[in-house]
Recover the amino acids of this structure.
């Protein structure tokens, strides 16, 4: 159970609050849709999908959220600008809450930048979270984000040279070396007017989930920004768990989500949205454990009616 002295920023994005001291705002869960391997997509090249299957999975997340009081965001994955716009538009139109935010998630800026232009023109800027601003993002891309008045973005703190917590802070704040001064992700985002920043600690492989937890704690402690990570890719690509099968991968994912929530993660990209029922309940229990202890011991006050504590016990 983590308690911090520094001011913790809370972001209001659509109908979701992210960040703050552990135990007050529940962990936000982010589930992927339209990704490679999503059985609802019939042709990734053309961007065709079975609408009923997409709505069924979206319904799983919405139902799990109602039952646990765990907030969620849809991670919309697209492999081309056209497909990404199509998928994001469909999700925006079909969520129960028309303020529900979504991550606009493309492989690179070649996909993301044209998509963000189109979605901004549709008036979805209040709900769109740009995923993500990376160390090598170009000035042209930053200028487009500014022109589109993007308000929310994920900062992906990944560079193969910077893996430990103190190194990640260089990526976020900026650093200087013999090649000159390097601008950090936070200054880049602020330069193009992005107001709400979410820091992705960047998981490299399964063992590094523990390091990501430490990075999340340090970011919250010393910078105050909401922080989280995506353990799912590392788990699904781990050879051992590929051999053990789907049930083992799902168990590992649920374990990782619970662990990260216990370490203070504000958001967790948990992989396929179809896993929401199991992942949400695991995280809801952890959030409830933390909140109950803080309420009894530290006299922490929060709205119990909208907290997992009111649902899981």
């Amino acid at each position: 159970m983590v308690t911090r002295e520094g001011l913790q920023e809370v972001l209001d994005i659509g109908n979701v609050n992210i960040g703050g001291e552990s135990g007050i705002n529940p962990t936000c869960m982010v589930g992927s849709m339209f990704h490679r391997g999503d059985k609802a997509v019939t042709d990734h090249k053309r961007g065709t999908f079975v609408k009923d299957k997409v709505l069924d999975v979206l319904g799983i997340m919405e139902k799990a959220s109602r039952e646990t009081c765990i907030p969620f965001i849809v991670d919309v994955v697209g492999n081309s600008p056209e497909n990404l716009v199509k998928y994001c538009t469909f999700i925006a139109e079909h969520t129960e809450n028309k303020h529900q935010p979504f991550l606009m998630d493309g492989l690179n800026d070649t996909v993301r930048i044209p998509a963000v232009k189109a979605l901004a023109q549709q008036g979805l800027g209040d709900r769109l979270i740009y995923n993500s601003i990376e160390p090598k993002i170009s000035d042209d891309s930053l200028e487009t984000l500014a022109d589109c008045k993007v308000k929310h973005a994920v900062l992906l703190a990944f560079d193969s040279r910077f893996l430990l917590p103190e190194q990640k802070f260089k990526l976020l704040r900026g650093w200087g070396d013999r090649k000159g001064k390097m601008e950090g992700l936070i200054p880049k985002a602020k330069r193009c007017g992005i107001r709400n920043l979410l820091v992705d600690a960047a998981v490299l492989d399964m063992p590094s989930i523990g390091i990501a937890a430490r990075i999340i704690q340090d970011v919250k402690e010393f910078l105050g920004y909401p922080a989280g990570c995506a353990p799912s890719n590392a788990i699904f690509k781990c050879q051992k768990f590929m051999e053990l099968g789907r049930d083992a991968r799902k168990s590992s994912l649920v374990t990782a989500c619970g662990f990260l929530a216990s370490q203070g993660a504000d958001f967790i990209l948990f992989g396929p949205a179809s896993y929401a029922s199991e992942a949400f309940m695991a995280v809801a229990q952890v959030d409830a454990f933390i909140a109950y202890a803080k309420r009894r011991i530290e006299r922490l006050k929060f709205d119990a009616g909208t907290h997992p504590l009111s649902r899981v016990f």
